[in-house]
């Protein structure tokens, strides 16, 4: 019984330490990603323009997947 108890406590301690290490690593990795916000470089006309173009590869995709034309 004492061996099983030691194994359980060891496993729990290990998982606690791994969990704390993961949180600490996540905090250090997230720090450089935080920066100042940048405004959009597009004006209102560029935001409203049509971007979808039915090119040859799009037509082939529709044909292969049997979408109605």
TrEMBL record:
Q: Which residue windows are coiled coil?
A: none
InterPro entries named among the record's database cross-references = Formate_DH_TAT-contain, TAT_signal, TAT_signal_bac_arc
- Region annotation (Disordered) maps to 35-54
The biased composition feature labelled Basic and acidic residues covers 45-54
Q: Which NCBIfam families match?
A: formate_TAT (TIGR02811), TAT_signal_seq (TIGR01409)
Q: What is this protein's record name?
A: Formate dehydrogenase region TAT target
Native organism: Bradyrhizobium shewense
């Amino acid at each position: 019984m004492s061996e099983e108890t030691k194994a359980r406590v060891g496993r729990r301690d290990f998982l606690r330490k791994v969990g704390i290490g993961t949180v600490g690593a996540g905090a250090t990795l997230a720090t450089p990603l935080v920066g100042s916000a940048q405004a959009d470089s597009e004006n209102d006309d560029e935001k409203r323009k049509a971007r979808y173009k039915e090119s040859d590869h799009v037509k082939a995709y529709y044909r292969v997947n049997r979408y109605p034309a």
